[in-house]
Amino acid sequence: MISETKKIDDFFYFLTPNVFSVLIYFLFLFPLITYHLSLADFGIRAIVILAIVFFDIFSAYGSSWLIHSNFFKFKTDSLRRNYWTTLFFYGYFVRLFVALIFFLIFIDLFSLFINWLPEYDILFHLTLLTRVIKTYEQIMLETWTMASKSTLFFKYKIFILSITISSILYFLPYKNFGLIGLY
């Protein structure tokens, strides 16, 4: 039985990083980004993100459902870890295979439907690489949520937020990388 204080603590640990990141983005990063990027840059980013949505659709393999449906079936932590490792590697290889297909042929196919310019390619490839690298994140966050590891979840989300803020501050205004600074 989980105590009420543990439930309240978990609630705040799971909620706080998300609220904090929204506030940081809205109050601090959004004005900074709009100062350094043009409306056309935002349109380019939207087109690239739209292209990446297709990657997410084709490479989804249901890891959230698999974790939720099987989490309590394993009696020991070692069995759970084996299961998560299998999910991670399976998901990673699925996403890697789909990313390779997208890397090789998707840009040519996408240019048939919209006016895809060659300068979008590097942004698409960076976003694709980021999505493949972050394959582990969905499994980790779902697992920590199911295992009530709210402090790990909190620390990870705050760490990722600080890395994101640091990289945007470094690459956008300091190095003046423009749109690439957001990736």
Strand content: under 5%
| Global mean pLDDT | 84
Whole-angstrom Rg: 19 Å
Q: What sort of overall outline do the alpha carbons produce when their principal axes are compared?
A: flat
Class per helix and strand makeup: mainly alpha
Order of helices and strands: HHHHHHH
* Number of discrete helical segments: 7
Topology, number of strands: 0
Low-confidence stretches: none
Largest sheet: none
What oligomeric state best describes the polypeptide chains here? Answer: single chain
Structure description:
Helices cover 80% and strands 0% of the residues. It has 183 residues and is mainly α. The relative contact order is 0.15. The model has no long low-confidence stretch (mean pLDDT 84).
Secondary structure blueprint with pairings:
Layout: H1 4-36, H2 39-59, H3 63-70, H4 77-110, H5 120-133, H6 135-146, H7 150-174
Helix pairs in contact: 1-7, 2-4, 2-5, 3-6, 4-5, 4-6
List keywords for this structure.
183 residues; mainly alpha; 7 helices
What's this entry about, in short?
The chain is an all-alpha fold and about 180 residues long. The chain is about 80% helix and about 0% strand. Helix 2 packs across helix 5.
